[in-house]
Specification:
globular
Length: 102
């Protein structure tokens, strides 16, 4: 059994995001995402389903041509899409990528 404390896990910025993965198998990959004040994740075409849970702060989330604010304790789940996010004050999230079945 593995238990992860999402508030105390250390995380790197977007450029070094690979080190933020704390669990991965053939079906899904889970990582901590930390955005500093004025931090952003550039537009990215996701080929997997994704889920973002805001642990702290809030983000402006863009999916294709839609924009919404995602706040603490809210979850966003999406089919493959073009996504980006930014935070004016900073945020901490858990992100999960879930592979599509072949």
């Amino acid at each position: 059994m593995s238990i992860f404390d999402l508030m105390t896990m250390e995380a790197e910025g977007y450029d070094n995001r690979a080190v933020n993965v704390f669990f991965q198998n053939e079906t899904f990959k889970t990582r901590i995402i930390v955005l500093g004040a004025e931090g952003r994740i550039p537009e990215c075409q996701m080929e997997t389903y994704v889920m973002f849970l805001v642990i702290e702060g809030e983000v402006l989330l863009k999916k294709n041509n839609e924009t919404s604010v995602l706040k603490k304790d809210q979850v966003f789940i999406s089919e493959p899409a073009c996504l980006s996010m930014e935070s004016s004050r900073g945020a901490r999230l858990m992100g999960v990528q879930i592979k599509k079945k072949d």
